[in-house]
């Protein structure tokens, strides 16, 4: 929701660094900025929710529209590094799902900082079209957060598969699409609900 400039940047970024053929699907979660202009952008396939659903319901709703053999779920507030898609695809030969490394730092990328604070991020991962059928359908009681954790639980606990970490890097700006106070307030309320619900899900799954 509301991230026209970031979305424009990631479209260009993908075009600059991808080696393999690709399609880009834009999910517009009821934005009220210029995001709707991507409807006429021939570089992407554009889909819009008629009400705000949150990221997890949006992913569930539109993921079946992907036509390629590989599916990359990605937020718009990141930067991909060269050969990103090649590194991710190579790892999928041995795994259900692949994550990249991320800096998660809201500042220009610096190797020294990355070495100290490197981590794995959920808002960017890749799977195959066939394996997606086994791991998808995020619990829609979770609105914004923990969709990535849900997928991780499906792969590791239910399918007994080890997710792979690709030898590639993204730079994540974090929450740059929260562009107004009303939206921020709504998001924060949903995040607090998600935290409570996720703990309930963990307890429920622990009993199964």
Topology, please?
Elements: H1 4-17, E1 24-28, E2 44-48, H2 55-62, E3 70-74, E4 78-80, H3 84-91, E5 98-102, H4 111-117, E6 119-120, E7 124-128, H5 129-135, H6 147-158, E8 164-172, H7 181-207
Parallel strand pairs: 1-2, 5-8
Antiparallel strand pairs: 3-7, 4-8, 5-6
Which structural class do the helices and strands define? Answer: alpha/beta
Order of helices and strands: HEEHEEHEHEEHHEH
Tally of contiguous helical segments: 7
Q: Major sheet: size, sense and barrel closure?
A: 4 strands, mixed
CATH class: Alpha Beta
The parts where pLDDT drops under 50 for at least 5 residues are 113-118
CATH superfamily assignment? Spore Coat Polysaccharide Biosynthesis Protein SpsA, Chain A
Number of domains: 1
Based on CA atoms alone, the radius of gyration comes out at 17 Å
Helical residue percent? 25-40%
- Assess the beta-strand content as a share of residues: 15-25%
Please give the order of strands in the largest beta sheet: 4-8-5-6
The CA-CA distance between the termini, in Å, is: 36 Å
CATH architecture: Alpha-Beta Complex
Q: In CATH terms, what is the fold-level topology? A: Spore Coat Polysaccharide Biosynthesis Protein SpsA, Chain A
| Count of strand segments | 8
What overall form do the CA principal axes indicate? globular
Average pLDDT rating: 83
Task: Describe the protein.
It is a single chain. This protein has 208 residues and is α/β, with parallel strands linked by helices. It has a single domain (4-207), classed as Alpha-Beta Complex (Spore Coat Polysaccharide Biosynthesis Protein SpsA, Chain A), CATH 3.90.550. The protein is built from seven helices and eight strands. The chain is globular and about 50 Å long.
